[in-house]
Structures are given as C-alpha cells and as structure tokens.
Design goal:
Length: 336
C-alpha cells in the first residue's frame, strides 16, 4: 500500500509501506474513501508543526471496513465508518469516563497523522489498521454523504462539542467565533441550528466571511473587544492575541472554548478574566465521545456541513493537491 508522507514544508509524497495486517481479534483494517485535512494538518503543511518529518499524515476520514478480527461485533466488512483521530481502547477508566484522547492503554497522545504516542500511520493512506475497532469506529448513518462528513473524525465533531452543550445550558446565547478555518465555520452553522440568538464570525478571509453569512452569522474582518458582548466565545486561530480579544468580549461568567493549536507563547488578560469570571477551556478533544451526537445533528437536516467543503479532489492527486491552500479539500477514492 501507499501512505502519504509529510517530507518538508508544503511537500508530501506517496511512500510504499507494507499492508497492515490484523494483529489481534479486536482490530479492523479500513480503506479511507473520503479524507480531508484538518486545521492542524494545515499548520503542519505550512511548516508550523513541532515534529520533524518524515511521517504519515492525515487524521480525518470516512473509510470502508475491509477486514475485521473475530471479536469485532459493531462493524463488518463493507460498512462505511468514521475513524476518530485519537487511538483509544474504550475500556480503561479514562475511556469509560469519555476521556478517549487520554486512554491509558496506549502511549500518551497516541493518534493518527503524527508520530506522537507511537507510530499509528495516517488517514491519507490506502489502508489503515484500527487497533480497537468496536471502541473506535462509528458507523456512518444511512443517507449521510461521506464527502460532507469526512471531517467527523475531528473538526466537525469538535465544533459540535465547542458550542452545542453550552447552548443547551444557555438557550439563545450570543456566540462569538474568532477563527481562520473550517472549525469556526462549522461552529457558526451549528450555533445557528441550535438557537443562538446572535453569532459574530471574525476572520480576515473574505471568502470565509461570505460562507459564515450563509450560515446566518454577522461577520467582521477584525475584532475590537466588545465589553460583555457575548455569552460564549470560540477561538480557533492558534494565536494568543486573538484568544485574548475573545475572552475580553465575554459577559460575566462567560465561557471561552479555545480550539486553536498554540505553538507560540503569548499573554492573556488575566485580571480582566478574573473580574469577569471567565471559564476558559483549552484542550485536545475527546472526539470519540461526541461523534454520535455530531452525526445525529448532521443527519437532522438542520445543518449543512457540505457547504464548508471547498474542493473535491481525486485520491491520486493527493501529493500535489494537499499542499495547496484550500479551506477544506476532501480527497475522494473511487477504486474501492
């Protein structure tokens, strides 16, 4: 098989690798059919990552099950499934508590798409081994388009978690989204669908702002802090200065969710946050726990994640297409 390998800034290539075999009766082999780059992949391709190449890239896809171990009961060959980005066993204490990104059965930070916590390969590969098939794989509901849901492995389900539980607790809340990519746009769509009274999307990219307006959000190119303006803020830029602006715009006891990958240090307005009573969460997401709810919302017809897909590209064109700057390209394989 081939796996797409990150070589250097804006450079990837196919590299041959052995077909992954089943190593236990709880594993599965899957073949990605629709894979996409997440916002982290975009940072890696731009040269902003902290891991030296080469390594297999990719951690968002819908795949078709090729083979399963004898003990696998929840999926079967031929099924379309969402493959979560983090490796988890489903049975340790943390997994049972929903902390699937912190599974104690595997090395810390075990994931697809980067050699952290072991080498698990990437989801831009012809074949992928899933070490805990029943725990990890989520069947794609009938009627959902794999292209539209290629990001359910991470960004789509993360966007659901960033805003949906808070809107359930605070119906009609005002939502601020400070973003640079797909996560923020997904949040706009989900927030509108779940009853936010006001959504402001801040992004310097005019095409992104146009799409946010199609989701019912007001937009701005830059943000001046709006004192006590919003109940919920979502920052997805990876820039601490933008995170600081977001938290300074919160109402008393407001909530800020940061989904940015902050590779560079910075300062936060801690006194302002103290006086306002801000709750700030910065976390790698336990996405497996949220995928079913996020898929349920996608299947409801109240949202349109397909609108964020910017390009649909043939699988064979991955090495040339992926390094290009696209909002949310989906690489589609039709040879299965």
């Amino acid at each position: 098989m081939r796996e797409l390998t990150y070589i250097a800034r804006r450079t990837v290539e196919w590299r041959e690798a052995p077909d992954p075999p089943l190593q236990s009766d709880v594993q599965a082999i899957v073949a990605p059919v629709a894979a996409t780059s997440c916002d982290v992949d975009s940072s890696i391709l731009a040269g902003h990552g902290f891991i030296d190449p080469p390594f297999a890239l990719g951690h968002e896809c819908v795949a078709r099950v090729v083979e399963t171990g004898d003990a696998v009961t929840t999926v079967a060959p031929g099924d379309l499934v969402v493959v979560p980005w983090s490796i988890n066993c489903g049975t340790c204490e943390r997994c049972r508590a929903g902390l699937t990104a912190h599974c104690t059965a595997v090395p810390y930070m075990a994931m697809y798409g980067a050699p952290i916590g072991g080498t698990w390969g990437g989801l831009f590969s012809d074949l992928v081994r899933v070490p805990y098939a029943d725990a990890m794989l989520v069947p794609l509901p009938a009627g959902l388009d794999p292209v539209a849901m290629a990001s359910a492995s991470d960004n789509w389900s993360l966007a659901w978690r960033l805003v949906a539980p808070h809107l359930k607790a605070r119906p009609g809340a005002r939502v601020l989204v400070v973003a640079r990519g797909s996560i923020g746009l997904y949040v706009c769509d989900i927030a509108r669908a779940l009853g936010a009274s006001d959504v402001l999307y801040v992004d310097p990219d005019p095409e992104h702002r146009t799409l946010a307006r199609a989701f019912g959000a007001a937009t701005a190119e830059t943000l001046d802090p709006i004192s006590q303006g919003y109940d919920i803020a979502v920052e997805a830029t990876g820039r601490v200065d933008q995170l600081a602006l977001a938290v300074k715009s919160l109402t008393p006891e407001g909530i800020c969710e940061s989904a940015g990958n902050h590779f560079r240090p910075g300062e936060l307005p801690l006194l302002d946050m103290y006086l306002t009573g801000v709750t700030l969460r910065i976390a790698r997401d336990n996405v497996r726990a949220h995928i079913p709810d996020a898929l349920e919302l996608a299947a409801s017809g109240k949202v349109a994640p397909e609108k964020v897909v910017s390009h649909v590209i043939d699988w064979e064109d991955l090495p040339t297409a992926l390094p290009e700057k696209h909002l949310k390209p989906v690489l589609v394989r039709t040879d299965d």
